[in-house]
């Protein structure tokens, strides 16, 4: 109980994400069952008035759906890439930054930080808060792990995949390389979470209103995505002569599962995430390195 009480915002963010996923999962299961029923009805009609080839094709499709619910990978990837969860990539920054920065905001906004600075070094004060914020690194990875386990339980730990059920390119890619895909996504989630935390510290350097600062964090995130996409587009197309057909770019953050499934270059995702962390960490250091300026801005 004490663990939950001391970290309630972290748990709230995690529970909201899990609840969101369960809604998306319920929709994907419902769609799966509707498709199964539709093919069953077509097959029944075919038996009475259809041709042998048509019936044979419908029977093959029906066999893909014969065991309900859908296999693990189908439920998991469809739930994450569709049914509103596709917006996770552009909203994850909020779920991470709010719990990560709140205690720092309270200390600075209330003026308590002045008395704390009289008892400890400024560097220790900032580092203590920053280290505490790093607990937010666990929110998205835990979300990924917990929801994957829930889907495994619902799907009876069935990992077989059917060619008709998993027919689109993204799912086809994930079903053949799901272990490196999943491992890469875990790394990307952790790296991007630190990037989100850094953005929050940059926007909260001069604490005003909590909501205003969170909106500023989100705007910084959108701005960074815009810069990255246009910069990479320019480098790839103008310098390296790589067309967009060869390398997919999107305004959606690479954290989003659909983006991760659409490209086969794991190294790009990892390098991209590391660059985010390095640049944003340098900015946090530059913003907070001078005690006098920080105190003056927040008195």
- Report mean pLDDT, rounded to a whole number: 77
Shape call? elongated
- The SS-based structural class is mainly alpha
What would you report as the Rg, rounded to the nearest angstrom?
24 Å
Amount of beta strand: under 5%
Order of helices and strands: HHHHHHHHHHHHHH
Terminal Cα span: 35 Å
Largest sheet: none
Q: Which residues sit in consecutive blocks of at least 5 with pLDDT less than 50? A: 162-170, 244-263
Helicity level: over 70%
Give me the count of strands.
0
User: What is the count of helical runs?
Assistant: 14
Describe the 3D structure:
Residues 162-170 and 244-263 have low confidence and may be disordered. The radius of gyration is 24 Å and the shape is elongated. The two termini are 35 Å apart. It has helices spanning 2-6, 8-49, 52-64, 72-81, 88-110, 112-119, 122-133, 139-154, 169-176, 178-203, 210-239, 257-262, 266-288, 291-298. The chain has 14 helices and no strands. The longest helix is centred in the first third of the chain and has 42 residues, at 8-49. Helix 8 packs antiparallel against helix 10 (178-203) and helix 10 packs parallel to helix 13 (266-288). The chain is mostly helical and 299 residues long.
């Amino acid at each position: 109980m004490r663990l939950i009480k001391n970290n309630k915002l972290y748990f709230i963010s995690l529970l909201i994400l899990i609840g969101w996923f369960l809604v998306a999962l319920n929709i994907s299961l419902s769609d799966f069952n509707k498709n199964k029923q539709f093919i069953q009805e077509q097959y029944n009609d075919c038996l009475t008035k259809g041709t042998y080839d048509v019936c044979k094709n419908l029977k093959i499709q029906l066999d893909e759906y014969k065991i309900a619910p859908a296999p693990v990978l189908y439920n998991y990837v469809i739930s994450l890439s569709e049914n509103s969860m596709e917006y996770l990539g552009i909203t994850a920054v909020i779920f991470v930054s709010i719990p990560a920065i709140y205690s720092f905001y309270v200390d600075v906004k209330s003026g308590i930080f002045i008395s704390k600075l009289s008892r400890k070094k400024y560097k220790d004060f900032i580092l203590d808060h920053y280290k505490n914020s790093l607990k937010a690194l666990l929110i998205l990875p835990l979300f990924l792990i917990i929801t994957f386990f829930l889907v495994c339980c619902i799907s009876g730990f069935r990992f077989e995949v059917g060619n008709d059920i998993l027919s689109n390119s993204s799912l086809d890619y994930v079903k053949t390389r799901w272990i490196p895909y999943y491992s890469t996504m875990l790394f990307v989630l952790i790296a991007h979470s630190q990037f989100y935390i850094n953005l929050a510290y940059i926007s909260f350097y001069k604490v005003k209103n909590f909501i205003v600062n969170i909106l500023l964090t989100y705007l910084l995130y959108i701005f960074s995505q815009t810069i990255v996409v246009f910069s990479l587009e320019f480098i790839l197309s103008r310098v390296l002569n790589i067309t967009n057909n060869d390398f997919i770019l999107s305004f959606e953050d690479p954290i989003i599962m659909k983006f991760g499934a659409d490209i086969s270059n794991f190294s790009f995702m990892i390098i991209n995430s590391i660059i985010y962390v390095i640049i944003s960490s340098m900015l946090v250091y530059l913003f907070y390195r001078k005690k006098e300026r920080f105190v003056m801005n927040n008195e």
